[in-house]
Design goal:
- The structure is a homodimer.
- By secondary structure, chain A is α/β, with parallel strands linked by helices.
- Chain A has two domains: about 240 residues, Aspartate Aminotransferase, domain 2, CATH 3.40.640; about 120 residues, Aspartate Aminotransferase, domain 1, CATH 3.90.1150.
- In chain A, about 40% of the residues lie in helices and about 15% in strands.
- Chain A is built from 13 helices and 14 strands.
- The first copy, chain A, has a seven-stranded mixed beta sheet with strand order 2-10-9-8-5-3-4, sandwiched between helices. In chain A, strands 11-14-13 form a three-stranded antiparallel beta sheet, covered by helices on one side.
- In chain A, helix 1 packs antiparallel against helix 9, helix 2 crosses helix 9 and helix 10 packs parallel to helix 12.
- The radius of gyration of chain A is 21 Å and the shape is globular.
- The N and C termini of chain A lie far apart (about 60 Å).
- Chains A and B meet through helix 1, helix 2, helix 3, helix 4 and helix 9 of A and helix 1, helix 2, helix 3, helix 4 and helix 9 of B.
- Chains A, B: Its cofactor is pyridoxal 5'-phosphate.
- Chains A, B: Belongs to the class-V pyridoxal-phosphate-dependent aminotransferase family.
- Chains A, B: GO terms for molecular function: alanine-glyoxylate transaminase activity; L-serine-pyruvate transaminase activity.
- Chains A, B: It comes from Haloferax mucosum ATCC BAA-1512.
Chain lengths: ~400, ~400
């Protein structure tokens, strides 16, 4: 018996989003989301597509013609990258130091690839010597790494060295930039990255649904000369080439409102200036880091691979991290998250991304997290946290 | 050299959307799109997910537990259906009477299936006897058909007969309901359809980005007992089961705003009542059909397989259809479309879907199309078109 559901008005709570994503969406981007639609083949939409591609190249720091939003969330751009670049029988090298390297492996296997791994502990970056050794041993065709590991808060610092090793072995490099694009220094062309992808709901502060992807001509040549078609029709770049390339012919209906939104989100990056935006993330996340450290908490990664957009703060001994996370959500409408995988329960994952990277958010975080820990009897110095935070912000 | 792009404010033209989709989005749905986000694992979002699933079951006319929005546009829900249900080596029967049967075939092949076809001319539905013969000859494991062919304006009228044939051969039935869900009578449970999918931007008048999918327990059992994982990680229902099932664990970031929007779009269907909504489409599209016929134009399909949501109007001899389409866009900001594939240039595809299925839109369509045809020297009787249109609308 199918009855008519009684579902009320949409009234979600008003959260402050300082978890691993989504981040707070800028009001101008929300407004773009509510713009009445034109058709996905409308001449005016073609112009909007051009704008998005141009802005996305600016934010990726690339001249790659092949720079598009994929019609799905971040994992969709990831699967588009892996699924198109990897052909059955090829060897794919992925990292084992975080959650998203594992996801890469799963996608590479489904693409018909053979997965080999380069190891580092969760919470540490890959060492160049280990990558070199893995290349010498396995001679992979494709090497995927994670520039900004959302699960561990680690920034991979030696990217140009990694791409140099890969290219010396004639391999293609795929960079997961989900949590770095638009917030953390990333130079696709200067660092010689073949394929990079990201999510819009992190440092771009855009609702998820259309996800940045860029490929060099060299990578796109590999895709277009595949022996067998990709295993996904929806993500097939040789077909998407018809829509996002010169022809602008129908492939699938683009997520029009999400394209509107990412255009506005990218436009905000261009207005701020990409270097200024990286600087803001360093400063505001630096205040967050100084604040929690002055309260007596430590960050999980070492300073040389600290990831400003995702701060992995170690939960003090005796603290139930999940209870503290529930506390700040309940008392302050503030979202932060727990660890994933090997770090579940051990760390807080505190995002400082895009429009969420503001002093008022950091102040709320220090106050709310301090109170949540005190409520569990922890000895934290919230006043010292505020002082340290203000010290960093005062420099800006 | 990467320069900062100078991209201005987002100011798309204000179109009336009467093409094959997207349709005009209801203002309440646009407002839902601009709602500030909560996280995809927020307790409040879990409730929103429950609402969406309950409303979607109502609109599909099903009790299927496995009823979810797929994180992508309509082709994403299509690929999720085909990619999960079809295992390598299985035989898949698809129709050859329209564009989207061809897309189904391409997806089935990429899933490792062997494609066989049941034929009917473009612009005609499948005949039960032909389907029976194809089953007897090929013994397919999966049978896909298109309930509402957006490329030809044909409604497949004999669905219960088709599913009976398929089930007598122990096959699974996948129904493409992209252009019927929420506008044209569809009874997933009563008609014994195993898997149905749709797009949100047609008769639901919701921006594309989260697309309805429903599977029976029998179909989901097949998916969960696959020998090999699906070839897509992003669309793997055995993994999505963790997020949309009882566990609500992380798989990928849901397109939160699109889920907000489809909740509101489905809520509008429930407020109107699904049977009333089917009736409105019949009445308003009936007025459109009467109007263009009274002007002297014909529809491509016969009346018994007329599809109210997508009217395939034959372009008169000597008329350049593309010029007429450009004319109404330029003079009236009105979007209609040309034929696809075998019908390119021969027909106008005029949508009458969801919020676009309103008397004012039909009046505009009759006026604008009539003028565009007159501008090319055609002998059309616009006044008769208006009278016929008003005659049908007056009955409502």
């Amino acid at each position: 018996m199918i009855t008519t559901p009684a579902v009320g008005e949409l009234v979600p709570p008003n959260r402050t989003l300082m978890g691993p994503g989504p981040s707070d969406v800028h009001p101008r981007v929300l407004r773009a989301m509510s713009t009445p639609l034109v058709g996905h083949l409308d001449p005016s939409f073609i112009e909007i597509m051009n704008d998005v591609q141009e802005l996305m190249r600016y934010v990726f720091r690339t001249d790659n013609q092949w720079t598009i939003p994929v019609s799905g969330t971040g994992s969709a751009s990831m699967e588009t990258a892996i699924g198109n670049l990897v052909e059955p029988g090829e060897t794919v090298l992925v990292p084992s130091n975080g959650y998203f390297g594992g996801r890469m492996a799963s996608m590479a296997e489904r693409a018909g690839g053979t997965v080999v791994r380069v190891d580092a502990p969760w919470g540490e970056p890959l060492d160049s010597a280990d990558v070199q050794a893995a290349f010498d041993e396995h001679q992979p065709d494709v090497f995927g790494f994670v520039h900004a590991e959302t699960s561990t808060g680690v920034r991979q610092p030696n990217v140009p060295e990694l791409t140099r090793i890969a290219h010396a072995h004639d391999a293609y490099v795929v960079a997961d930039c989900v949590t770095s694009l638009g917030g953390v220094e990333l130079e696709v062309d200067d660092w010689d990255i073949d394929v990079a992808y990201a999510g819009p709901q992190k440092c771009l502060s855009c609702p998820p649904g259309a996800s940045p992807l860029t490929l060099s001509d060299r990578a796109m040549d590999k895709v277009l000369s595949r022996e067998h078609p990709t295993r996904s029709w929806y993500f097939d770049l040789s077909l998407l080439e018809g829509y996002w390339g010169d022809e602008r012919s129908y492939h699938h209906t683009a997520p029009i409102s999400n394209v509107y939104a990412i255009r506005e989100a990218l436009r905000l990056v261009a207005e701020e200036g990409i270097e200024n935006r990286w600087g803001r993330h360093l400063r505001v996340a630096g205040a967050l880091k100084a604040g929690v450290e002055a309260m007596g908490l430590g960050l999980n990664p070492t300073d040389d691979c600290w990831l400003p957009s995702l701060n992995a703060v170690v939960a003090p001994d005796g603290i139930d991290a999940d209870d503290a996370i529930d506390y700040v959500l309940e008392h302050y409408d503030l979202e932060i998250a727990s660890g994933l995988g090997a770090l579940a329960g051990d760390i807080f994952r505190i995002g400082c991304m895009g429009y969420s990277a503001r002093p008022e958010n950091v102040a709320l975080l220090v106050a709310a997290l301090g109170e949540a820990l005190e409520a569990q009897g922890a000895d934290v110095d919230v006043a010292a946290g505020f002082d340290a935070m203000r010290g960093v912000l005062g420099d800006g």
